[in-house]
Amino acid sequence: MVVRSGGHSLTPELERVRVEIEKYAFDYGLDFYETIFEMLDFEEMNMVAAYGGFPNRYPHWKFGMEYERLNKSYAYGLHKIYEMVINNDPCYAYLLECNHMVDQKIVMAHVHGHCDFFKNNIWFSKTNRKMMDAMANHATKIRKYIDKYGIDAVESFLDVCLSIDDLIDHHSPFIERRSKQGHDVREEPPVSVKKMASSEYMDDFINPKEFMEQQKQKLEDERRKRRRFPEDPQKDVLLFLTENAPLENWQRDVLWMIREEAYYFAPQAQTKIMNEGWATYWHAKIMTERALTDAEVIDFADHHSGTVAMHPGQINPYKLGFELWKDIEDRWNKGKFGKDYDDCDDYTAKREWNKDVGKGRDKIFETRRVHNDITFIDAYFTEEFCNDHRFFIYQFNQERGVYEIADRNWKSVKMKLLAGLTNFGQPFIFVTDANFENRGELMLEHRHEGIDLRLDYAKDTIRNLYQIWSRPVHLKTAVEGKPKMFSFDGEKHIERKLDG
Questions:
Q1: Are 56 and 136 in contact (CB under 8 A)?
Q2: Are 26 and 19 in contact (CB under 8 A)?
Q3: Mind listing the pLDDT tens digit for each residue in 148-187?
Q4: How far is CA 354 from CA 331, 349, 366, 387, in A?
Q5: What is d(CA 229, CA 226) in angstroms, rounded to the nearest whole number?
Q6: Burial call 78-100: b when 16+ CB within 10 Å, e when fewer
Q7: Of 368 and 223, which is predicted with more confidence?
Q8: pLDDT, tens digit (0-9, with 9 covering 90-100), for 450-466
Q9: Contact 7, 94 (CB under 8 A)
């Protein structure tokens, strides 16, 4: 089969290799959608990369800026994109035209690992599998809005929407946080008006019906004013704005599209370590056991070592994920799990433990199906793994003016990893009151769970939210442990200290 879909068709030799790699992947038990490979030159690859992997996106300056950055980086030899793959049905993947054959083999094997992960990991189960079409539809609609309302108006509104596209509830596709009607239906006791004491025959004169009805209506009005809206804090800020902000129809549609795209990309951020590690594990497995020729061994070793290299000052998701998948398979092959193993206090015995149970392959496929990065690290980042791979926490020493190791304790390292992954390392922001002080103003609260706000970012965010809400926007947070409220009224920023 010769593949063509916007890029260049594969050469007969590459098509033969594609069929060969696909067969190896199936033989190992990988399960993926049809995978379509396209050949691109470096400019086309950079263009698609600038669009987030999609060949057709709406016009916006950020894509052009990213394209220029990638082009210059490639020209100066600072980076080279080897592969891109899109979670879709069918999956689309891109090969760089100038790559050597061994690199093309690695990329194809790596891509099949990703495609298996996209199809089978539960966190991708709610994603739109026709996102190529959806992205193209978004592009068409936004171009129509540009023709109708002008480039400046649409691009300015897109700027605002893109600046808040992370204010979503990443778990909402799996949790029904409100009723089907769109809000919680809660029974409230009926309003009752206290009557003045009277005998039965005088009641109509002392508590006249018209007066009692007026008092009842007054109490109902007061209750309505006191009722908080929304009744519960809303983490999906974009959804709340889409449903409640005073937007024009085209603006509401644009905001909905940005939200849809944000939810499509969210699982990729939630599983970055697992997904890249899984693809790396399988390209190493397929290449070393099946696909390599003798002449390609050195080139493969050079490429693979670069993929899993450690980078000073940051976590390489390819490396961490790859090593964890190998460790899980090894542990479950040797029976290094369960009560007997956990209760063993002999370090040497645990190192040499081998019950030869052979459950490793089943275990990694099971793990691939149900975990995300947080649960993956929490379940499988063990003391032995941390010590074997020499993980540590570092910090800057102000007195000496250098970075130095601060802690090697595996629990501290694990907690540091988990903290950086929780909510993608971003602060938890909720809409708590859309009628603040009964003035139609928007109140958000920062739930402080170990992640501080960057105040400059926070001020920019509430200013942009004002563009959508059209009324003053407030944000409660804590600065150095003291409650504080930041506000933007359309003209200036205001900071207020709060009691508490």
A1: yes
A2: no
A3: 999 999 999 999 999 999 999 998 888 876 654 444 444 4
A4: 9, 9, 21, 19
A5: 9
A6: eeebbbbbbbbeebbbbbbeebe
A7: 368
A8: 788 888 999 999 999 99
A9: yes
Q: Judge contact between 421 and 377, C-beta under 8 A.
A: yes
* Per-residue pLDDT at 195: 60
Q: What is the pLDDT of residue 489?
A: 93
Q: What SS3 string covers 77-136? A: CCCCCCEEEECCCCEEEEEECCCCHHHHHHHHHHHHHHHHHHHHCHHHCCCCCCHHHHHH
Check residue 183 and give its pLDDT: 45
Across the chain, what does the average pLDDT equal?
87
Q: Quick one: which H or E segment has residue 320?
A: helix 317-334
Q: Is the dihedral of CA 310, 314, 318, 319 positive or negative?
A: positive
Q: What is the pTM of this model?
A: 0.86
Record the tokens describing residue 229, joined without a space: 């809206």
For the chain, the structural domain boundaries read 12-121, 142-174+238-266, 308-422, 427-497
Scanning the structure block, which residue is given the tokens 């900071």? Answer: 495
- The CA distance from 473 to 446, in Å, is 13
Compute CA distances 330 → 57, 316, 327, 363, whole Å.
Answer: 43, 21, 5, 10
Cβ atoms < 10 Å from Cβ of 182? 9
Paired tokens of 430: 């909720």
Distance separating alpha carbons of residues 252 and 301, to the nearest angstrom: 51
Residue 34 φ/ψ, nearest 5 degrees: -50, 135
What six digits make up the tokens of 466?
């004002």
